[in-house]
Amino acid sequence: MAQDSSSRTRIEPLTPCIECEIREHALFRPVEQTLLDWKQRYRQGQYSIPPKTQIYTEGQVLDEAYTLFRGWVALTKTLPTGKRQVLRIALPGDFLGYQPNQLERPSTHSAVALTECVVCLFPRSSVETMVFEQPDLAKRLIEIYQGYMAYCQEHITSIGQRSAKQRIAELFLDLLYRLRRRAQVQGNRMPLYLTQEDIGDAVGITSVHVSRVMRQLREAGLIRYKGHSLALLDEAELARVAGVNPERMAGARPD
Amino acid sequence: MAQDSSSRTRIEPLTPCIECEIREHALFRPVEQTLLDWKQRYRQGQYSIPPKTQIYTEGQVLDEAYTLFRGWVALTKTLPTGKRQVLRIALPGDFLGYQPNQLERPSTHSAVALTECVVCLFPRSSVETMVFEQPDLAKRLIEIYQGYMAYCQEHITSIGQRSAKQRIAELFLDLLYRLRRRAQVQGNRMPLYLTQEDIGDAVGITSVHVSRVMRQLREAGLIRYKGHSLALLDEAELARVAGVNPERMAGARPD
DNA sequence: CGGGTATTTGACGACTGTCAACGCCAGTGG
DNA sequence: CCACTGGCGTTGACAGTCGTCAAATACCCG
Question: Do A87 and B153 touch (CB under 8 A)?
Answer without folding.
Answer: yes
